[in-house]
Amino acid sequence: MLALIMRAYDVPGFRISGPSWLNTERFNIAARVPPDATPDQFRLMLQNLLADRFKFVAHNENRPAPVYALVVDSGGLKMKESRGITQAGGAPPPPSGAPPMGKDGFPIVPAEQKGFWINFNGDHFLIQAHRVTTAALAESLANQLGQPVTDETGLSGQYDFNLEFARIEVGTAPPEDTGTGPSPSLFSAIRHLGLKLDPGKRPMSTVVVDRVEKTPTAN
């Protein structure tokens, strides 16, 4: 049910407040969507389905929520701004085909490939980023943590970096480093970039579930 609400209202799970069973009960849905439906129209159809079959009712409300603020660490920024890749006629197109694999089992992403590449090998995660902003990094970290991350660095540039960290359970704080694992916690990995995740609370727009039934109406 949580996934259905996330899709219908286009919000992450940490911005939905409701009964605990939203994250445990599962349903099969078979429905026809017109081939020319836009994403907005599809979401409205799904909202109507939830209201009709599950008697779903919700409202939006600003609530204090736990967040992490992404800030520049006291030691200063350690990331380097992207220099940009240009040639006559503009930047080269992204390379085609799969990137080569490194000795650590992760793909080696070419510098001209803009954006995030996220890979994992067992409990070891690697984010390779080229020409990305700290705002985009905060959004990616929010997905990893299952919790809001606000960009409060004041930085407007684009950066290249690698971020390696141990796997975390979504919705839980990354564990502190013990010095015995192969990978640092996400908190420590971020500090290697000259950044820091500060815990706090901020007002957050939240979808508050007023009513939803576990058993949908019959077909």
Explained architecture:
The model is unreliable at 86-90 (pLDDT under 50). With 219 residues, the protein is an alpha/beta fold. It is built from 4 helices and 8 strands; from the N terminus they run H-E-H-E-E-E-E-H-E-E-H-E. Helix 1 crosses helix 2. The longest helix is centred in the N-terminal third of the chain and has 16 residues, at 39-54. The chain starts with a helix and ends in an 8-residue tail after the last strand. The chain folds into 2 domains: 2-63 and 204-211, no CATH class; 66-86 and 102-202, no CATH class. Strand 4 and strand 5 (124-132) form a beta hairpin. The strands form 2 sheets. The chain has a 4-stranded mixed sheet.
Short description:
This protein is an alpha/beta fold. Helices cover about 20% and strands about 30% of the residues. The protein contains 4 helices and 8 strands, in the order αβαββββαββαβ.
Shape: elongated
Number-wise, the strands total: 8
Mean pLDDT, all residues: 83
Kindly provide the radius of gyration, computed on alpha-carbon positions and rounded to a whole number of angstroms.
21 Å
- Unreliable runs, pLDDT <50, ≥5 residues? 86-90
Give helix % range: 10-25%
Please give the alpha-carbon distance between the first and last residues.
18 Å
Strand order of the largest sheet: 1-8-2-6
Question: Which SSEs are present, and which pair or pack?
Answer:
Layout: H1 2-9, E1 16-17, H2 39-54, E2 57-72, E3 80-81, E4 115-121, E5 124-132, H3 134-145, E6 149-151, E7 159-166, H4 186-191, E8 195-211
Parallel strand pairs: 1-8, 2-6
Antiparallel strand pairs: 2-8, 3-7, 4-5, 5-7
Helix pairs in contact: 1-2
